[in-house]
Amino acid sequence: MELGWALVLTAALVLVTAFFVAAEYSLVRVRETQLAELAERGSTIAALGQRMARRIDEYISATQVGITAANLGLGIVGEPAVFSVIARLFPVDAEAEGLFHAIAFILAFAIVTFVTIVIGELAPKYLALHAPLRLLLLTAAPLFAFTQLVRPFIWAVGGSARLVVRPFGAANRAREATYSEEELRLLVAASARSGVLQESERELLSNVLSFADKVVRQVMVPRTEIVAVEANSTVADVTELAQKHPFTRYPVYREDLDNVIGVVHVRDLVGMSPEQARRTRVTQVMRRVVAVPETMHLDRALAEMRRQRVPLFLVIDEFGGTAGLVTMEDVLEELVGELEDEFDKAAPLIRKQDDGSFLVDGLTSLDDLRERLNVELSDEPYDTVGGLVFGKLGRLARIGDSVEIDGWRAEVTAMDGRRIAQVRVRSAHRQGVPRSQ
């Protein structure tokens, strides 16, 4: 073969290698959702790419066949061609011809290898990693045609490869088209950092991913915070109670909170005359109450609320006693954040102070504390900040008590009876912080 044609063929083989490398990496890198979106718009190339992505093993085998064939061609044609160029550029005497040939051969091998790695391997890989969809749309049709041409050889090679990997449990494994929950979290976080998702979208998606993992115990109003009415109370009593504790619903109990028999809604009391309100017992206007275990997951609780058309559940502990109340608002807030109505207090659960510390309501969930303060709390068997501090102390708390929690110090600043009402949280490394009691 003439030297000129040999050099042209060498360049062509390098480009062929680049084509197959680009096709391989773009096929592996592209997301099927990107192809599906274009296919729905009528792109036939995207539809072809979808088909190829679903049978990725076959097309990856085809690219490997192409890369191997091109590299063999470079060894047969490319290195001798470059060797001939070097020999013509640097003629030597017959005495040094043997040594020169050895040096020229090594140099030719190095040049061909360098060009193949840079142009045939690295450059198309970088392009495929940064623009996989665009490259796949360019390479899909030629790769599909090449695959049909060498299909019998691919079957033979692929079958042999599957026999080799079968002992490792990897035979006939389809392309992973699903992601674990943790992988989805990482994808959401990465999309938010890159600006693809807004912060509100990131927060909503993160809440959705953790929603089914939470149970009603984590979001309920605890028993100690329930404002309820006794079964013998009148509507007038409820009206008076609503002036002090403005809620829309009040549980109705007989004897104690472990025997809740219904719930009264203030909307049902509207329109009653004062005389009628004094004569009417709450048991006459109360609605039914549905009890659920405190271990019920939130997704199931929401589904049950919708199915039974009740906005409130009585939460029962493992001993059959009343643990608390959970409303549809409590459940939905785990998805969309705080929902405030005209009765909600404006004071936030976590308030940053001028000295860098945080005043935290004792009923603040540990999930909220993790998110707001970016605290990496280890797995704790508690749902609230107050419960965590109480557990760390191992006794009834007093104002001024403090405990260390994963590099942060929580100091009790307010009590509500025996319940921890408020704590001050600050970094344990700040100067002047009291030591644990």
SSE succession: HHHHHHHHHEEHEEHHEHEEHEEHHEEE
Report the average pLDDT across residues: 83
Work out the helicity level. Answer: 40-55%
Specify Rg, calculated over alpha carbons.
36 Å
Shape: elongated
What proportion strand?
A: 5-15%
> In DSSP terms, counting alpha (H) and pi (I) runs of 4 or more, how many helices?
16
Largest sheet, in brief, is:
5 strands, antiparallel
**In terms of structural class, how would the helical and strand content be classed?**
alpha+beta
Strand order of the largest sheet: 8-9-12-11-10
Q: Which regions have little confidence, pLDDT < 50, spanning 5+ residues?
A: 431-437
Domain module tally: 4
Number of strands: 12
- The end-to-end distance, rounded to whole angstroms, is 90 Å
Quick recap of the structure?
With 437 residues, this protein is of the alpha+beta class.
Report on this model:
The chain is of the alpha+beta class. It folds into 4 domains: 3-168, no CATH class; 181-211; 216-336, Roll (CBS-domain), CATH 3.10.580.10; 350-427, Uridine Diphospho-n-acetylenolpyruvylglucosamine Reductase, domain 3. Helices cover 53% and strands 15% of the residues. The protein has 16 helices and 12 strands. The chain has helices spanning 3-29, 32-40, 44-54, 56-89, 97-130, 132-149, 151-165, 181-193, 199-211, 235-244, 274-279, 282-285, 298-308, 328-336, 366-373, 385-393, and strands spanning 221-222, 229-230, 249-254, 256-265, 290-293, 312-316, 322-327, 350-352, 358-361, 402-405, 408-416, 419-427. The strands form 3 sheets. Strands 8-9-12-11-10 form a 5-stranded antiparallel beta sheet, with helices on one face. A 4-stranded mixed beta sheet has the order 1-7-6-5. It has a 3-stranded mixed beta sheet with strand order 2-3-4. The protein is elongated, with a radius of gyration of 36 Å. Mean pLDDT is 83; it is low at 431-437.
